[in-house]
Each structure stands twice: as structure tokens, then as C-alpha cells.
Amino acid sequence: MRLEIKDLHVHYGKIEAIKGISVVVDEGEIVTLIGANGAGKTTTLKTVSGLRKVTSGSIIFNGQDITNVPAHERVDLGISQAPEGRGIFPGMTVLENLEMGKFHRKNRKAEMSDDLDKVYTLFPRLKERASQAGGTLSGGEQQMLAIGRALMSRPKVLLLDEPSMGLAPQMIANIFRIITEINKTGVTILLVEQNAQQALQRAHRAYILETGNVVKEAKASELLNDPAVREAYLGTGAHS
Amino acid sequence: MKIRNYWNLRDWGASVWESANRPKRVAIALTSIILVALLPFAGASFLATPIAAYDAVLVYPVGIFVLMALGLNIVVGKSGMLDLGYVAFFAIGAYTMAIMGTTTGLNTWEIMPFGIAFAMIAGVILGLPTLRLRGDYLAIVTLGFGEIVRLVVLNSSWSKGPNGIANIPMPPDIGPLKFKLDDQKVFFWVVVIMILLTIWMIRRLSVRRPGRAWEAIRQDEDAAELMGIATLKYKIWSFTLGAAVGGAAGVLYGSKNLFIAPEMFTLNVSILILACVVFGGIGNIWGVIVGATILGYLPDRIRFISDARLLVFGIVLVVVMNFRPDGLLPRKKREKAIVKKGANA
Ligand SMILES: Nc1ncnc2c1ncn2[C@@H]1O[C@H](COP(=O)(O)OP(=O)(O)OP(=O)(O)O)[C@@H](O)[C@H]1O
Ligand SMILES: [Mg+2]
Predict the structure, then answer these.
(1) ipTM score assigned to the predicted complex
(2) Rounded to two decimals, what is the model's pTM?
């Protein structure tokens, strides 16, 4: 399995948000995209999951060109996204949200209890809250639910958009630990983050995005020690 | 479940229904259906409508409004798409009845499938390009569609333009039951049966995959797509089923009215049916039924105050919506959760 974004261009109306980026994610990796607000991280993830159409360029998954495959069919192929701002179903319970994550699976009945168990093992809190409405969960719990729900479709690659957004420091460390854990079960991860410190510690490789361009690509550990990167993206990291 | 206050009829109803076993439920359902079927015999009671014939009022506006509101609720309430052109499907059904009824010699029941099919085809044709739009855009496009259908029949010769089509045949008798204009009981029973079929269809779909997909789309369309839901397909289905119900209502209306003209299919009808849905409780079929019944019946009940009638009607709308912004019988914020807990324990 390999996810490849080739010379991607994406427009919102006349504004070009992504100006020709190329990103590769290999099987088993955690790859992170970091960059300032508005750099185009979310847009990139949305084109991978299919929510946004590309202007030009291509997305290759498992050797197949999926550039024009609709989003809901990409889920069948093994691409699953936990969207920015969580995107859970507020009027459904935690359990119903998780069940929705299996909507497209052919043998969902047979898989359901196994996969619920797996998600509940990763996020015991979700089990306690199984019958609570998604919209009444705390921010951190909603984030867990979004990730858990994305896992229900048994993805090959998991797209995470700022999983640490709005979380307390303790919770942030916890979420990143779980992301590593998920990766160890064989799920490839493409992670978008503002929290560069944590993301670089957890990821294998990283891309730095600036206003729609990739300005740097390297091993995560290298970037962690790169003075220029430290200056630009880890400024606050030094205090913690 | 505890009943929190007297106004919470919905929870009261739900608790009665949930605590009942199967024979009890059948009994409740049958009793309600019989009581409704007996309504035309209550013409001498306080329910009587001055000026307009009571049994006719029960068929139109009340019965037809309920049917249409249920259909529109599939679109607006279930999958969350604002359709302001619903009258178009009603018009397509009515004109199918009028044209085929006056030219082919087929009877109402034989024309019914055509009316439904044409409405559904129109639904798909309109839906394919427009259902990619969301929110306000969709509302505007559907509003335009409603007007286009009216303008087409107004300006075409096959529809007899503004003169409308007269001499539409009534439905053939069903055994001893005769359709008559001065006694519309049989019409009413037919509407009730169509309403029951619609309720049955909606309830079946609601607990199955389409219902779950619509619910997901309504709550967050992008997230629904990410769950692997073919959102466009399900939206078109919802739209088309709504159209089918509107078309069926139109066929019956044409066959009851014997005469139709473009001025009967204005934007006002779309708005009024939408008002029924919102007034009763968007998304909740029982609320929608209550809402359409009241909004259909009230103007005729208070017809004796003639000119002030619409004023009173408006005041009732404003007051009720102020006190109950989610409608008379709103949908449960957490539909199904209570039922599901038992099923999954
Ligand atoms: N729906 C939209 N319509 C118009 N412009 C948009 C839209 N969504 C994003 N943009 C623009 O595209 C650019 C990239 O946005 P994107 O959301 O991908 O950034 P991001 O890197 O995820 O930022 P953040 O870290 O703040 O989430 C921004 O300039 C943004 O204003
Ligand atoms: Mg973003």
C-alpha cells in the first residue's frame, strides 16, 4: 500500500489554495503535514478523502489512480478521515456514531462487536459514554469519537486533521500515544498538525507546507533538530 | 419514561407505545384508524365547518395536506433539504390525471402509477443537477422549479393554458362504495389509506439503511460522505420519494376536483405545506400529521369570521411558533437512542 499525491493543485473559486504539492506515504508510516494556519493542510487531506475536487494533479492509492473516485467509494478502498472540527453526528449517540463508521462495510454485522471492542479498548471513555449524544460530549471526547469512528471502517490509511486541537496538555499526550498505538496495529497514518513538537516526535517523516507549497520534506527526527524549523514551528514547544 | 409535563404529548405517546406489547399495539393502531375513518360522520358536532361542506373539507384541504406534508417531510425533515417547489410534483400528478383521464379512458387507479412515475422522473431530473447544491441554493432552485412547472402548464396548449382542464373523471366505484361530490366519505377513506401507506413506507425506511443515511446527511453531509454513504444517491432517493407522494396526492386531487387550472399550483401551496411540516414538528411524522390537520382545517372552521380569518390564522401560527419553536410535536432530539439501548444490550 502506498499513497501518493502528485503535483496537486486545488482551487477555491479563483484562489489557488494548493499550488502543486507532492506527498508520499508508504505502508506502515506515520507522515505528518505541518504548517501555519491557511497553509493548505486541511485542503490536502480533503482532496485525499475526496471531499474536494482537484484542479490538476493526481492521487494514487495502492497503484490505482483515485483522483476521480467519489469520496464515499474511497472509504471502500481503505481511506478513512477524521475531519477537522471532529465532524461527528451530534444527534446520534456515541454507539450510533461508531455504527455509522461501518455503514459501507459488506459484512458489518459480523464485524461490529469485534471492532467496537477494539475502539473501546483504545478509548475506554467512549464505552462509558456509549448512550450519550455525540453533541453533548466534551471536545476531547468528540475527538476520540471521530478517530474511533474512522477506525470502524477498517482503514488502510487513516487521515487525521488536527486531532490535538482544543485539547488539554495531558489529553494531547494521550491522543498522540493512541495514534502511535493505532499505527502499530498496521494502520498507515497521514497526520495534519499544528502541534509540531508532538507530531514530529511521533511521525516517521514530515512535510512542511507554506501557502500551498511543500517547502521541506525530511525525516521527522531531523526536522525536530533543524534550527530553522525549531524557530518557525517549535517556538512554543521550547517552553513545554 | 417519566412524563415531564402535560405539553409533552410526544413523549407520552411514545411511552404508551413502547410499553405496549404487540396485541396492544395492534389494538391501539386499529382503534385510531377506525376513529379517523369515522370522522366524516361527526359533521353535526362542534367539528362542523360553516359554509364549506365538512366532509369535503376533510378530503381537501385536510387529508391532501396531511399526505403532502408527509411527503415533503421525507425531503425536508428526514434528509434536511429545503424544498420550496414541492407544489410542482402535486401539479404533475394532477395534470397527469387531468390529461390522461380526459383522453385515454383510463380510470383514476390506472392513472395513479403514471402520476407517481412522472412525478418521480421529474424528481430525478431536477435532483441530479441540483442536489449537489446545499441550503439556500437548493431552496432557490426548487422554488424556481415550482414556478417553471406552473408557467409551463399556464402557457401550453396541451394543458389548455389558463383555462385549465375540466370534466376530469371521478374514480370508479369500489364495489358498493360510490364516489360522490355531495358526500365525500369514500374520497376521505381513500386519502386515509394513502396516508397510511405513506406512514408505513416512511417508518420502514426510517429504521433501515436509507433512514440512517438520511439522518447522517441531515446532521453532517461531509461526515456522511466520509462514512461511505453515497450522499447524492440517498438525497435523490429522498427527493424522489417525496415527489412520488406529492404526485399521488395530485392525481387524487384532480380526480376529486374534476377541474384543475394553473392558479391552483402557486408557490403559496409549497409554502403552506412547508408551514404544516414546521408547525407540526419537522421530522416527526405524527407532528407533521397534526400540523397539517390543524392548518388545513382551521381556516375552514373559522370561515364565519370571513375577512378576519386569515388574520386569526396568522396569529395562531405566530403564537404557536413562539411558544413551541420546534413545532407542536417536535422530533426527539435523540431519536431512537432509547429503543436502541435495549436492542444492543
Ligand atoms: N471553503 C473555502 N472557500 C474558500 N477558501 C477556502 C475554503 N477553505 C479553505 N480556503 C482557503 O484555502 C487556504 C487553505 O486552507 P486550509 O483550510 O487548507 O488551511 P489549513 O492549513 O488547514 O489551516 P488551519 O491550520 O488553520 O486549519 C486558506 O487560505 C483558506 O482561506
Ligand atoms: Mg486545517
Answers:
(1) 0.92
(2) 0.89
